[in-house]
Amino acid sequence: MKTVKDIKLSDGRVLVRVDFNVPLDKSGQITDDTRIRRSLPTLEYALANNAKILIASHLGRPKGKVMREFSLAPAAKCLGDLIGKAVILAPDCIGPETERLASSMMPGDIVMLENLRFHEGEQQNDDEFARDLASLCDVYVNDAFAVSHRANASVVAITRHVVDCVAGFLLKKELDYFDQAMTHPERPLAAVIGGAKVSSKLVALENMMRRVDMIMIGGAMANTFLMGSGIDMGRSRVEPELFETAANVIKIAAEKNIRFFLPVDVVVAPALDADAPIQVVPVNKMPKDQMALDIGPATIAHYTKALSDSKTVVWNGPMGAFEIKPFAKGTDALVHCIADIDALTIVGGGDTGLAVHNSGRADDVSYISTGGGAFLTLLEGRPLPAVAALIEAESRRGSID
Fold it and tell me: Which residue in the list 17, 35, 52, 117 is annotated as catalytic?
């Protein structure tokens, strides 16, 4: 798969699909500009090569309607401040006014297209919408890993209408780190999997059991595994329809000699509330009127010791309801453990990445992915539609050449 380094950018209009779906406060101010910062290497490279840069992204879920609260204006201002150059916000992502603006660009100009999701065609992977986007540029660059698991027009259909389609540095980096961790890992390879539902991680678990040496389960999904093992978890969140499936996963892990870890103690409370009284109990003494909301100290010690000898760690999903302080200790402890060990450490996006950033240990982790859903898709062993589209586009170009 070619990158921006493999193609001529000078004087050309280069449309860079980024993911600037950043969090905003009630006043419309960006509260975390990580995703914008992660796009800078590709944009700065394009600038250094005298490209005319068009930036495309979505923000929020306007569902095909123009909603001013989802305008990319804050992202344009933020990028301009970071890059030290004016970023013009187009009135739309397609249409006559945007076309005139794009055609009048000079090398070094940066134009940000307005929210792609103001048009239904974006999420419908509509070919006509993609053709209109493609007409704005000479070169297409996908640097939006976080949406590459979706068949959207700006990452899939557009590649059928631009001759030169390549990957940006961020997309390439995401794929390279994942390949290093899961395809050619230094062993032992450990997977730490948390979050709320077994159902959302089941395919990933099944796929990872072909590759990993140990698996550690946390979060509410651990309750389903414990119930499947015959342990009553009181009022904890569980998926009863998956008790048998969870038990079978444990069985398969044993048959494959994969070390499979479940919590041995949990932090419990009668409600998911910061002011609720909490206690730590062994899982086999779970009170019937309580909910398990975090892994306990014995589990933390158990997991930390097992991870200390790992040479590659892939982590996706928090260990508990970390957004509420009394139930954040398990996730925070795992952050520090993974940050301290001498290993390649890859953290999936979303809540797990947020927990690492909040801890102040982001610089001590080998790589934090920008995409939760895309990262999980890779863990499941499924191709990313946007990456497949880039490869197919290169194949078409090769046959023409």
Answer: 35
